[in-house]
Amino acid sequence: MSRGRTKVVTIAFAVFVASASFVGGVGAQSSDSVTLTVTVVDEGGNPLSDAELIATWDDGGPVNRTTAGNGKAFVDVDEGADVTIRVDHPHYVRNQPYVVENASEGDVTIEVAQAGRATVTVEGASGPVGNAIVRMFHDGQPVLNERTAADGRLTTPEIEQGNYTLVTFKEGYLRNRTTLTVDGEVSERMGIRQESVLVTFAVSDDHFDPPRAVTNANVTVPGVADVTTQGTGTVSVSVPVNGAYEVTVTKPGYDSVTERLRVRESETTLNATIQRTSAISLRADNDRVVVGESVRVTVTDEYGNPVPNASVDRAGTTVGETDGDGVISVPVESPGNVTIAAEADGREATVTVEGVGSGGAATATATGTATASPTVTGTPAETAGGLGPGFGVAGALVALLVGALAARRRGE
User: Fold this and answer.
1) Which of 270, 114, 298, 105 is nearest to 204 (CA)?
2) With CB atoms 3.0 to 4.6 Å apart as the test, which of 4, 36, 151, 167 could cross-link to 75 if both were Cys?
3) Over the stretch 373-400, which tens digit does the pLDDT of each residue have?
4) Are residues 131 and 184 in the same domain?
5) Residue from 196, 185, 194, 190 nearest 152 by CA
6) Contact present, 220 and 247 (Cβ < 8 Å)
7) Phi, psi of 137, rounded to the nearest 5 degrees
């Protein structure tokens, strides 16, 4: 191949590579990306250089940029994304990140403020209060929600200079609120005091409509109270303010419940509902039954309502199911104790009746009526003294009186 031809081929190859590189470069840029022109300014509107920008969005970022001398930086993001931009500067700060919703090509101006810091000390009647809550709000927006150290102190990170609403409290303590001006490094002491409020616990059984009060229910507030409801289904106790409590309500025969109670700084009521533990009962009309006859049994639920279609067996042998009134008649086929059992939806109950022979003394029928002794017929037995049939004591006295009267007449 001639040198001239080789040169042409080389140039063509270079052009091809360059073209491929250009195409690849274009392809590497998402056709759905847009460029935000971000300008960072102070409270007076002056542009700030050397501001670090960190942009993130769902499934995207971070994109890091630094503002130039004119306070500007170009940030490429996904079109239509909700982009969060955080600003970091040696002397300025922004309490809340800046959010660009539904990003599109255009200008974005982010204002920052000079940085300050606050140290808050929380004190009670006996000194510093550790683990106290410190909250700060700026222009109605929450900025800080932290707890004090063991010495009752909390120092904020760098925050915007300005006026803040400062709130301090702790579980069992009343809130203290003030306005704090942060104009550099500032300190503030906040006093709080312990307090309790009256809480009424009302327990009812919502099986009924309307629900019915439940008396003698046990109400437990761990570390605070363990009390019992009275005739109205209520009980009241003092509970420390500004706390969250897990309240447990129990009563024998009822399912226990746990309720979340939030106590602030005024009297309040906790309404708790419980229901009886699911169960069935089995009752026989008679406890003694003549062998060969039947006894009627009734199956009821935990509220005394009839349980239809309950399976009933006698000494392990199935005899049938209860009717719509929860009733079934069970034959008693052997003397001695007979166990009758019922089952419904996993609930079980038993009752024992006694089978007795038909010749037994004072034997009861299935309906509870005693069997009468048969009437004796035939010739009456003679009475003592040989006075003959039909003579009793009264007859003997009459005979004696007649004899005495006859003797008297003969004597006359």
Assistant:
1) 270
2) 36
3) 333 334 343 333 444 444 444 444 444 4
4) yes
5) 190
6) yes
7) -125, 140
